[in-house]
Design goal:
Elements lengths: L1 E4 L6 E6 L15 H4 L6 H14 L4 E5 L9 H10 L4 E6 L18 E5 L5 H8 L3 H14 L4 E7 L10 H8 L3 E6 L10 H6 L5 H17 L3 E5 L2 E2 L8 H4 L1 E5 L4 E3 L12 E4 L2 E4 L5 H4 L9 H6 L15 E2 L5 E4 L2
Parallel strand pairs: 2-3, 2-10, 3-4, 4-5, 5-6, 6-7, 7-8
Antiparallel strand pairs: 1-15, 8-15, 9-14, 10-11, 11-12, 12-13
């Protein structure tokens, strides 16, 4: 069954970057140390920041990110503390190297998902993007997680470099025992966007390609018993546009204390919130929150400001489509 996942304020999603350090140098990495910081949060700070959002929202969800979050020696403590604070779900995003023996230090009752990043169905496709040996390491990590009883999801970041190989993923997902599959569009953000060679190779795919390929692959994976989630991206002209910054509670936290509500803004000091003295404070204007209410015919105002190449070609006043909020998802269930 295919459905659009509506925005809701009934739950909050905390995307918590506890460090920006990573063992890999993926060509499409969105981490920008100049904007996100270079420090690793100590466990006491992580504890206080987790408590801060737990007080603001009943039963929030937390996704631990990096860099590579398993590089943090106290990730296990952070996971356990999340459960103590009443977080509804805990996910660890990982490149598969699974440092500090993390699989043996947490249980499936404490971690809802280990979410692995893999950008190709083979080393030939994946490793040029993520690094030599990454495909083998990631698939071995998935196998190890499944062996210990953890639920596993997999994230595939679609770009021109790997869209032609996406159709091969459903069989691999089934072979690996993956429970959920997340297809995401590559963001035009991070240090890699400053390199023209990377921009050309890793560019976002065009609308026709996206609509022809993504739903078909998602349906193929769902037929194998795997739940698939992917961005809506394109709206028909008559479909209503909603901005998650106005109608949902998503927080993207970085080690330097910046808190964004829109991930498209993360390369810029447009964060609407920041953590000061363990309190969530509003930042000076103009920031992302001032932009969320703006209404434009093309849909997402952040695309108009930050990545206008995504906007539809206008023929007078007739728009062939609109750009959806990047947080709007479609889901296909088995």
């Amino acid at each position: 069954m295919r459905k659009t996942v509506s925005f809701t304020r009934h739950s909050a999603n905390i995307f918590f970057h506890i460090l920006t350090r990573c063992n890999l140098r993926c060509r499409h990495c969105y981490i920008n140390p100049d904007q996100h910081g270079r420090n690793t949060l100590d466990i006491d700070t992580i504890d206080r920041w987790l408590a801060l959002f737990a007080r603001r929202h009943p039963s929030p969800n937390v996704i631990f990110l990096g860099g590579e979050p398993t590089l943090h020696p106290d990730l296990t403590i952070a996971v356990k503390r999340s459960r103590d604070l009443g977080y509804a779900s805990v996910t660890i995003d990982t490149n598969g190297y699974l440092f500090h023996d993390i699989l043996n230090r947490v249980t499936p009752h404490e971690v809802d998902y280990f979410s692995f990043s893999l950008d190709g169905p083979s080393p030939k496709v994946n490793d040029p993007l993520r690094g030599n040996g990454c495909f083998k390491q990631c698939t071995q990590g998935i196998a190890a997680a499944k062996l210990r009883g953890f639920a596993v999801s997999l994230i595939y970041t679609v770009s021109r470099a790997n869209i032609d190989h996406l159709h091969r993923m459903p069989s691999l997902l089934a072979e690996l025992g993956v429970d959920r599959f997340f297809i995401q569009v590559i963001g035009v953000r991070g240090k890699w966007t400053e390199d023209a060679r990377h921009r050309d190779v890793l560019a976002q795919v065009d609308r026709n390609t996206w609509l022809e390929v993504i739903p078909q692959v998602a349906e193929a994976a769902a037929r194998r018993g795997i739940t698939v989630t992917f961005p809506k991206v394109f709206l028909d002209p008559k479909e209503p546009f909603e901005c998650a910054g106005l109608v949902a509670d998503n927080y993207f936290i970085f080690p330097n204390g910046r808190v964004y509500r829109c991930p498209l803004c993360e390369d810029y000091p447009l964060h609407s919130l920041e953590i000061r003295n363990d309190r969530l404070a509003e930042t000076a204007k103009v920031n992302e929150a001032d932009l969320f209410p703006l209404v434009i015919p093309e849909g997402c105002v952040m695309n108009r400001i930050i990545q206008p190449c995504n906007l539809p070609p206008a023929d007078g006043c007739n728009l062939p489509y609109k750009i959806a909020c990047c947080m709007l998802k479609e889901e296909i269930t088995p």
